[in-house]
Amino acid sequence: MKASDIIALLPYQRPFLFVDDIGMITEDAIEGHYTFRRDEYFYQGHFKNNPVTPGVILTECMAQIGLVCLGIYLMKDELKKDLSTQIALTSHQMDFYLPVFPGQKVTVYSEKEVFRFNKLKCKVKMLTEDGDLVARGIISGMLKA
Q1: CATH numbers and ranges of domains, the chain
Q2: CA distance linking residue 36 with residue 139, whole number of Å
Q3: Whether residue 46 lies in the annotated active site
Q4: Is 21 left (phi over 0), alpha (psi -120 to 50) or beta?
Q5: Is 120 in a helix, a strand, or coil?
Q6: How many CB atoms lie within 10 A of CB 13?
Q7: pLDDT tens digits for 79-136?
Q8: Which residue out of 33, 37, 46, 136 is catalytically annotated?
Q9: Alpha-carbon distance 100 to 17, whole Å?
């Protein structure tokens, strides 16, 4: 399954799609990218005269790349039969270290910890283009094809 196929199967669209591309994917890990465009809807009010990407959006970006894209890849055989993927975030624990500003590109790395009974648990981290740690944590979700 190609990266473009995985992105096409995501159940999101702009303005709530936070995956530009997938650089690497295996049964155990994924690496993907997203550039936070200057005209993203959430910058209008977060914060006045000092736009910063909200932590919930950073978490969503990590979930879309590190959990959902990896989950679609892991379930590729089931998805060939049924393209309607249902996804539910079940838990997350994130620590944030740096802000992300409009125009910044981030890279998300995710490593599978457990994939059993369609529940996927991953260790995720987000880095700036310079390799500085933005956030890291654990994220879990249920996937159903």
Answers
A1: 3-144 (3.10.129.10)
A2: 21
A3: yes
A4: beta
A5: strand
A6: 7
A7: 665 556 677 889 999 999 999 999 999 999 999 999 998 899 999 999 999 999 999 9
A8: 46
A9: 17
